[in-house]
């Protein structure tokens, strides 16, 4: 293999690698960003790139690991019983080969009293 072909292959591999690790997840909140105490909230970590890839999801609240902090499904649900459930939620996807996505932008959830 000549040097030009090798350099071209190396450049293509680094572009592919960069594309896989630069997936940017988006957190979606259901029913809304503002809920009342006692409502069930569902957070979805949506990674558009690599939809056919098996992801494991890590969840964060206010930049700290959130329980359940690792899931194999893109959704977590919880009952917002406390005002302290308010905060900024984000996620990261990790593939089976240990490649990680970027961290999502945080979404703000506000839990209101009655």
TrEMBL record:
Pfam families: Ig_3 (PF13927). Residues 25-108 form the Ig-like domain. Keywords: Disulfide bond, Signal. Residues 1-23 form the signal peptide. It comes from the Eukaryota. InterPro entries: Ig-like_dom (IPR007110), Ig-like_dom_sf (IPR036179), Ig-like_fold (IPR013783), Ig_Fc_receptor (IPR050488), Ig_sub (IPR003599). PANTHER family: FC RECEPTOR-LIKE PROTEIN 4, IMMUNOGLOBULIN FC RECEPTOR. This is Sialoadhesin.
């Amino acid at each position: 293999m000549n040097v030009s072909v090798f350099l071209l292959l190396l450049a293509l591999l680094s572009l592919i690698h960069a594309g896989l690790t630069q997936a940017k997840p988006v957190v979606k909140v259901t029913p809304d960003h503002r809920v009342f105490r006692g409502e069930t909230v569902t957070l979805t970590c949506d990674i558009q790139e690599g939809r056919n890839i098996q992801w494991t999801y890590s969840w964060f609240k206010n930049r700290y690991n959130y329980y359940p902090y690792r899931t194999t499904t893109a959704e977590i649900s919880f009952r917002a019983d406390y005002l302290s459930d308010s905060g900024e939620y984000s996620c990261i996807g990790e593939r089976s080969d240990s490649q990680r996505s970027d961290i999502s932008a945080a979404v703000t959830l506000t839990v209101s009293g009655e």
